[in-house]
Protein 1
Amino acid sequence: MRKLSKKEKIIIIIAAVTVLIAVALLAFFPLYQRSGLNSPDKAKAMSDAVWISEGSDCLKLGSSDAGQQLPTFEQAAQKAAELGFDTVFLKSEYLYDKSLKAGYKSGSSFDIFSRTAAVDAEKLGLIRSACEKLSSLSVKAVVSVDIASFDSVIASVAGGGFASGLIVTGCSGYPAETVNERLKAITSAVKGANPSLAVYADFDSVENLSSVIFDEQHMTCCVAELYAEHEDLGAYIENFASRLENSGVSLAAGFRCERVCNEKYSLNADELLRQIVAADSCPKVTSRSFHSLSDFNDNRENSAQTALEYIRNGLNLSKTLTQLELDGQNEQNIQTESETYSFKVSCSDKFPVYINGYAYGAVGENFCSITVDLRHGENEITVRQNGKTISFTVNCTKEFTGELVSFITPSDTAYYSGKQTVQITVGAFYQAKLRAKLGDKELELKPLGTSSGDYSVFSASVKLPKSGKKLRDMGKVVVEASFNGVSKTYTGGNILVNAKSNSVTVSAGADSQLAQPHTSYQQQITVTGRNLTPYTDNGAAGTGNFIMVSAPTAETFPTDPNSSYYDPTYCLWTQGTIDRVVGESEYTNGDGDTFGMYNLASGRRIVKEDVAYIPSGYNLPDNTAGIVSSDGGNGLDITISTLWRVPYAVNRYNQDYYIGYEGKKFNVVNHTVSVIDLVFYNTPSHSGKADIAQNPIVEKAEWVEDAADGTSILRFYLKKQGGFYGCSVSYDRNGNMHMKFKQPTPSLSGKTIIIDPGHGGVQSGATGRNGTVYESHQTLKIGKYLAGYLSQSGAAVYMTRTEDIDVSLEARRRMTEQINPDLFVSVHLNASENKSRSGTCSFYYRAFSMPLAKCIHNRLVEAYKTSCYQTDARMYAAIDNGANYYPFYVTRTDVCPSALVEVGFITNDLECAYLIDDAYQQVFAYAIYCGIADYVSSVG
């Protein structure tokens, strides 16, 4: 054999030493991991389980509304896998009739275990489905049974072949001897049915384990919950874990995330993290158990998410556990003349800061700079994070110089039918002392919950007496306001109750002064549609400049350029409508867009892009209008012949407005319209009667002539106040006008509904989570869930988009006008530069759309309270942002009630967690569905 050279010997020696070092490292590495010397590395290597409980994390077994209120087992399983848990405990003690067990759990006897009970096959099948789903996701499925469960239940789970383990709960409810006996019997039965099945024993607290025997005959793993009452939690865990030495039983530390920031348990997120760190420092703790999945979904104060980030990636705990402190401010009572106040707090960068109950969102590197708006006088400022609260007072000493009362509605003389309930609203300085009267009657003003700066809105309801033989004067609305020794009296409108013979109902806020009806009809005039236009000589002398609507529909606006650009008392004009031009103007909206407009002889303005301009067109003769036919069986469908397509208006009476959201004028307390006028301009003559004998909406219809400006009015008296649900107006090729009233029915079945998921394609809308979450993606998901619920109820559902594509606002509204649905609902997510803004709101344009917006809004507020913030009532005030007037383009339609819903704030990190979660998207979609159903039921 050849001798090795010196060089070869050196290489062999180096290789041998390298191998020995590697072997030593490999042998030491697990010990190093288990020692807690490198907690983040150990965290990544540990096994982590999460509880899924029926009724909170997923649907309660056997519930009749499956798939609508809470996610299914499979969806919860998917969520657990996405969060990175490798084991799931399925809490499912409803496998059999629990009433059979009632009264037998004595704590000292297990005689009930000799009994048998049938296992619910449907419930067992649901659990099997969840386990199979988990298996496909490479996640262990461990099914729970109560220690007092019947043997037939345990055998069904153990022998089912679908679970990887069985966790026995309720072990703390009996003496240790009984627990030992029962665990041994269960383990024996389980191993007999399925030797590969692991048995976990769950204890409410480690303090319940003093006499429990730990060996493989009883269990595979002990799951014990930890609490922070012990000063040296690490030593406490180590002392308990030492009892497992040589037992073959592993220890899983249990953590109750749902108890964080819960007043009953006084556990904050810092203490939860300290528990996790203490458990990780113990070599004998091999896994963790978290209760429960919903806490990782709803993300209350980010506690569960912070725990998850720690166990997955490790955290800089010195930053995470930073306590909330005010920086550079020692005073508790601050004086300032400014209407804003800025301050800075030191805080954790892992939890949101709450300012007066509103979540401020993510903060910077252990600090948060906050600016709050101040009202005049004392302002209580409360800052809260992670269970700690700081409060102080800021007194805004700037002198209040505004009016004590900003508005009163009704502001002018208002006429009402007898026995109506009238809503009186007052906008007033929030600190003012108010006293209101109607004539000699004292009014009780109550806050509406809406405010703008220093002003709040108050409301009072007045029940009017029944109509008499003569017009009855109830007096004027008078409000006395006082503040800081200054008193002032403000006067609103006069309220009149019509006589029995005059059923006209009018109030401030109507489009025009109500013309008086004829006592008899004019002589019948034979009218046929001729469809005259300014393009040809029609026998009328002279020429003029005209417009003809070229768009399918065009909005009309007040003539005064200084008036509100969007006015819901003005109707849309249909294609072909003609009017004379008397001037030009332009308007620049809040987005900086400038529109050229024509001023028209009818007293309206119209956007130039929506019309064809006809210079030096032939004048048109006076029009005559005649009712050709009317069908009162389904809503109301009336055909009226005209000589030419005259301009028209649809005026609604007995509707009050108040200044509310963003200072807009047209907010509505209740929809109270009771008279509808179809006004024909340039029409001094009319004829015919409408057949409304069987009509469910209209009580009476009559012609009214306004001699002052040569208009004719076809007036409709509604059978009930607020009984108007939209209408469509169109001209046919012969010049006949068709007007159709929408008729409500009490069921969703048969309804036609358009769902509009906001934005889409390149128009992604608002973004959250530093630009990684897009509004358009989430509204599409919510919209699809909503469409599914509505379809299941028998509604015909159309969606403006079903994929992530760009659909113009005009196309969305045109779809509404073409389909002419019963309802239109647009789904959006809100956004604000102020990350503390949170909650939900809805919007309407026409007053008759307010009830729909309100019903949906109420259901969403309820969903937030019951599904998101059920343990944090302090958030309730931040949820409800109201049902408000706002002129969103897609809602500016006449044909049906329409609402735009802002489900929540995508810019608020806390709320964004709900909005992007599939389970909560279904909760929100179902809430909108219930709101729609509530509305349909209320008006049908």
Note: The radius of gyration is 36 Å.
Protein 2
Amino acid sequence: MRVWLDRRMRRVRHPLAGSALAQVALLGVFLAAGCQRTRPAVEVRLLHDGWTLVGVDTFTTPIPATVPGTVHTDLLGAGLIPDPYWRDEADRLGWIAEKEWIYRTALPMDSAFLAHERVELRFKGLDTFARVRLNGREILRADNMFREWSVEVARLLRVGANELEVRFESPLRVGRALREAYPHPLPMDHDAGSPPTRAFVRKAAYQYGWDWGPRLVTSGIWREVELVAWSGVRLTDFHTATASLAPDRARLAAFVEVEVTPQAVERFGEGGRLSVTVEVASPQRAFPRVRQSAQVEAGVHTFVLPVEIRRPRLWWPNGLGEPHLYTIQAEVRGGGFSDRRTTRAGVRTVELVVDPDSVGESFHFRVNGVPVFAKGANVVPLDHFVPRVTEDDYRRLFRDVVEAHMNMLRVWGGGVYPPDVFYDLADRHGILIWQDFMFANAMVPGDSAFLASVRAEAADQIRRLRGHPSLALWCGNNEIDEGWRRWGWARGYASPADSAAVERAYAAVFYGILPDAVSRHDPSRAYWPSSPMLGWGDPESLKRGDSHYWGVWHGGEPFEVFRDKLPRFASEYGFQGFPAVETLWAFTLPEDRSLDHPVLRAHQKHPRGFEIIREYMARDYPVPAGLEEFAYVSQLLQARGMRVAFEAHRRARPRTMGTLYWQLNDTWPVVSWSSRDWFGRWKALHYAAKEAFAPLLVSLVEQDGRLEAWGVWEGRDPWKGELRLVLEDFAGVRLWEVTFPVDLPAGGSLRLWQGETRQALGAADRNRVVLQAVLRPSGTEASPRARGSRDAGPPSAANLLYFVPPKELALQAPRIGIRAEPGSSPASVVLTLESDVLAKDVALSLDGDPDARFGENFFDLLPGQPKTLTVETRWTPEEVSGRLRIRTLAEIPPEGVKVPAPPGTLAPGKVDRGDGASPPLQLFFAP
């Protein structure tokens, strides 16, 4: 398999190659523009209203149902079950998945709609085992959550009332039957069922329970339902692919798929063929209109029209340039009918580069010929009940992604294929998408029915997504290869024949069906069989392929191991942290709020999660007894540890060319590895990612008695400026400083300075000093702040290094002055803060506004160096000043120890708001 894989990864395929182009060459020629009066060929009606839900043997009185939706959310909406996210209620709702449920609605039909030549009933998603009946006749049996289903129903519909019924069987009962019928068991993780069944069902794996999510196995019409009536001709697909790029021109291929009815050929054709014209145009006039005509038979035909754009504006990943999108329209005319589609296309090339090198084998992405260091995270569904995720939820997600300077997201294989809006937003914001097929942590059956279902699923999803410029890679699965080869799955069979059969089924899907589907439907993109191909215990995993390094967390290794364990591409790794306390309070009662309470533990799905957090915390931080303080310190711990990895990976460029942490978001309110919780509230980790992923990074490292300062720059042009190093104590006394010019190459990482720790510290107490590094353009006087990838002006960067773990720092409770002023919009306030001594790990919040968004948070405030930031809130500046809460590490003593406030300062956790006068604000760098 490896030889085959190597050969496949290196094969370069031209997007115009293959039978489609040859077919078009025979089908059509370019014709001059002409006029033809036509009428629209297609009429679509959404079927989202008027649905009811009943249980077959429970809740037999119909209740209103939401489509798209799920049984769980409909029962919740009717008040028949408690909120699954409240306290530990999720643990008592497993019975829902054992039942059968029926959705019904009435379809009023008029003669004009039924006069079309074809009428199709289309389900974009049925979850999962469904039987569909129309006017009492069964028309469809569905068995795959990830497929689209379309049935011709023109002969079954009648003018007036029609009844549509969708009956869902229990996914657990069907799964058990499939398991019993299969000749041998299959290994699968994260399924607490007795017996586990999810490997036999094409359904979202996370629903069966993961170490960050509940076991709530859903049913329902989870995506759109529509009736599509059409006549004559229609467009069934339209997408573009970049064929070639040159500085002055880009050549694209516009793929237009057309379907023609037999009735149109019979009525308007000649000799069994119909004259069809396909046209591609740019409303922005980016290229001349292209037209092609042909005589075609009834059925589906693919036209490939060449498009040339002079002086193209390219689509770039976030941070490397503008992700420009062209609006392109396609139209088909024939038999007196016409149909039109519009798409947003990006002109770009994207490659997965897997080549031998001095380390082993590269693994990185190249966009428009430029190597890209991937920065981002893994995405899971935004809610356990996916249909209730809104477009605004996705917009907020991508706003947070862009603000954190990310340029890639991995859509993890245990969730769902996200809706179109997800990819539209990725296109718009320049976020590359690593797309897993929906397989995770379980082997697969090899029977013909299962394989046929996977083949259809792959075709549906590839055809739906291939037009998006953000889509960078198709990946077969999550961690299945590793489970089979390194977790002992293969050794779990007494019979070698059974083991061989299971391995053959795996190969059939991930080395047969899926790569063949990508090659057929999306040949310009790469396919990678499994993430990772080598496990974190294998030394080779650091030399080639992508890596899931779980020595930290699962292996108990210290965070510092990230500096030495440098993979080619880190596609998954992480550490847990608590969500915001407002999130904890949202699903608990006051009596639930302790680490050992069953309700809180119900929202910690890792069996040793709290214990692991505490073990790591004790190494570096004081371990507080109170839940609110413990949650705060856990966030600091998570952010600190992950930032070690972020900076190590970026310093290691070009050996390491990607860092995607686990995980970006949550499916419900939970203690997990996420950087933004279920409410979208940022943890300290997300702020750390924002700083560490900024285009310009200055990174300080102390190791083996030596200090190093590194500069990392992601821009496509060189960066010139200066590095300033300052050692000072926690009272702001400057012990030494040095400044010197630096040049950073485009897309480069350089060690800018090194020295002996002993010499740098001199006689200073390492528990009471901090080293600050600042990279700034020459002549800049203001204290630097990392800027967004699209902000104007040259970027700056700053970072701090302490010489002992946080728990050993000699911290004093700070006296913090604040000033609140109106921001640039009515919903924003500008805050300026200044401290008299080091304020370590400043965490800001606003009483009464748990969703206030701080531009910066969980930061260190150096004495005499003011920090200005913006907060988005509904409160006025005066209200913000009165409601602002500030927490620092100085008020978090070890268990049983009380730290008194030093003389002349306020009590820990207090801020000095003064008498209305602004505190003096001094520039760090004096002119």
Note: The first strand starts at residue 28 and ends at 29.
Protein 3
Amino acid sequence: METNIAGSTGEPKLYDAEILQEFFSLTLDLLCIADLEGKFIRVNEAWSDILGYSSSDLVNKSFLDFVHPDDLQSTLDAIADLTNSKQVLSFVNRYRSSDGTYRHIEWRANPKGNLIYAAARDVTDRISRETELKRRDRLFREIEAITVTGGWEYTVETSEMFWTRELYHIHEMNPDDEVDRIGDSIACYMPEDRPVISNAFQECVRNGTPYDLEFRIKTVKGNFRWIRTKTEAIQADGVIKRVIGTVVDVTTYKELEHELEKDRARLENIILGTNVGTWEWNVQTGETVFNERWAEISGYTLDEIRPVSIETWMHFAHPDDLEASNRQLQEHFEGKRDFYDFESRMKHKNGHWVWVLDRGKVVSWLPDGRPLWMMGTHQDITDRKRMEDELRLAKQEAELANKAKSQFLANMSHEIRTPLNGVIGFAELLKTMDLEKFAQEYVEYINVSGQNLLNIINNILDFSKIEADMMVWENERTDFINLLENALDMVKYAASTKKIELLLNINPSVPRFIKTDAIRLTQILVNLLSNAVKFTDKGEVELRAEAVISENKQARITLQVRDTGIGITKDQRAKLFKVFSQADSSTTRRFGGTGLGLAISQMIAQAMGSDIEFTSKPAVGSTFSMTIQAEIESTKNNEDEVKLPIKRCLIVDDNMVNRTILERNLSHAGIDCITCENGLDALKVLEKADDIDVLLCDYHMPYVDGLETVRMIRNNLGMSSSDLPVILMHSSSDDTTLHDQAKEVGIRCFLTKPVKMSQLSTCLGGFSYAEGGEKALDGTCRSDSDEFMQYIVDNKETPARVKILIAEDHPMNLIMIKALLQKIMPDAVLKTAQTGVETVEYVKSSPPDLIFMDVHMPEMDGLEATRAIRTFELDQHLNHIPIVALTAGALKEERELCFEAGMDDFLSKPVEINKLTAILEEYLKKT
């Protein structure tokens, strides 16, 4: 090896070898000679000391075998430079030691001929120190940025100032710009703070006095910040050499501190404003903190009750309240209550008890789950408790007064209806007698007056019940078409006396059966119709019904009552739905009324989920409307609908609206219609048309009335009753001789206006076709009461065995009920009893087929008598006897009491003959 080295230089071999050997042994650094392929030729002893390799471990080994894999590429690049005869200076890589660890080695290498001479130094410790310094510097910068803390150093001897980068950021300065660190920072101080800061700095420089200050600065960008600066003087040999300081941006903390102060002040004001005492309690130690107000509630100052503890509260608390208070506290501790909230009594300094609302919550817990600190308030609620006691007494008094009012209403209803029962009942009887015309009119006036008085009483009683929240609402299956027809029937007579046309306009979309409160809905409609008739002097009143059906069997039904009356001015509208008021005083004088009707109707409508709305024009008329939502019980208008044997109909009526209604309804039934507004036009139509099956003609028409029109058809056109059947529409007030005159011209079917489709269908269904196309009329339509009367006539033997017991203590009412029953069922056996005891004894001796039971009777009232009869029936295994309540009481509660006692039905006084007939039909057909 020595020979090769010497040969390469051309110098004497021995001399070169000796020098080289001396050089290799003297240096502490790593020395090596390698060929251009990177194989070691010679190494010195330092390799063994530093990396642990002997010469034999390395010679002829590749240099690259010991390089860290991550440094291999950079090392290959360095060897490539050497191969190209370039020197490599300060190249560092990681080199493997004999123990497998890696050391950082810094290389300097120089190629010469075919050899590479390299010297290396172990820089592992230096690299570690540099890495640590970089890490510390990075950490310092990160901490500085996170804490927004800058640093500075002032050298006293040179007056030089050094800033960290974060300090520049705090002042919103650029670290790369030329900055007068002293002058520019002073410029950022508020003028009022500069003297304080300057004095503190000078004192620190001269005497080494540190300072810690907070003040505001205005950055170079004009933003205000709060900073905190702390300094310390560095001395050497008793002389101050440097001053170092930190600057922290405390803007956020100052803002939070300011908000906290505001919140604290706000809380103090709230506590002061609510006048509550506050308390804090260490649940484990019993330590407590009270404010002054806590003591004041009991009449003390805080100083007077010191030292305070939980025992202080125990001392003031009422003994009877402690158990419940402790129980609620425990529930709060166990998480069963979010808050502790307890009303208790505390002993006042003057000896009386004050009520406090004690509220609190645990705000901190021990690691084992036990409560530690609890905070809360004490509020003096003595006045509130006193008011509650007063309200409780007032409520009891109000309930007693309300009960008395209910009893008064029941008594008033009974006392008023009892004489009305006689007035209306006997008037009904007189109407059926053969009286002279003027007497019949007087009787009708008595009956109408009685009915009007009854309506007024009902309104007053209903208003009282609504105000007392005693009204009970029903939702029962209702024949809605029948309800609309009956509502019009109730105002039919009043309309006919004023010669006002009544129109019933029911759209075919309206379902026949729905679920609703039929009584209350009828009450609204009758009220609206009565008002319409009352305030209309001429023209017409129309009841209109339309429906929109949804898929879920719900109907949205709109009801309208339209009139051509006096109308309502804008000034009058505000009073319309107010109780005890009408549009103006002149209306009251002219038309009368209590002013309750519309107000009650609106209350009922709103309880049904609707509102009564209206449009009106003075001297033109008004329209009142409401919309109800109801469940449909049947989607058909007529469940027994049959095909009518009529194809074409001629309608003659001077009222355009009525013509339209009739045409639409008949068209819906599949009948083609032709309409005329007078009799002369009807003659012209009949002269040209030979396919008219029936004539539907109004009696009251201008120029030529209905009778004269039919007479001309018979005489001038030669059309007999078989050729052209006629249905005559007329008013209920028309002269009774009208029927006789009509029969003379071949009219056999009559309909009272407003025309009901059920009755019209019955009339039309009575026509049949004989052979050869001749038309004939089978009969006329008949009302429900007529059918029952016919049932009585057809079963003459049945009434003779019917025995009816009337239990009534009022002589006049007894006479009236007997007269009505004799009128309806002349062959029935009528028995009477004047007390409940007599009634029960009669039933035991000779059970009747039907009992009309007065509720209010001496010795034993009707309810008790009914219960006794039901017990007797049960004991003796007798058949059930129908018992119908007969009472002047009209309240819902009385009706319910009757049913609870075992009665089957309820008939309120004054007794109406049609309702009495319906009762007889219901229960005697079952007999």
Note: The chain is about 45% helix and 25% strand.
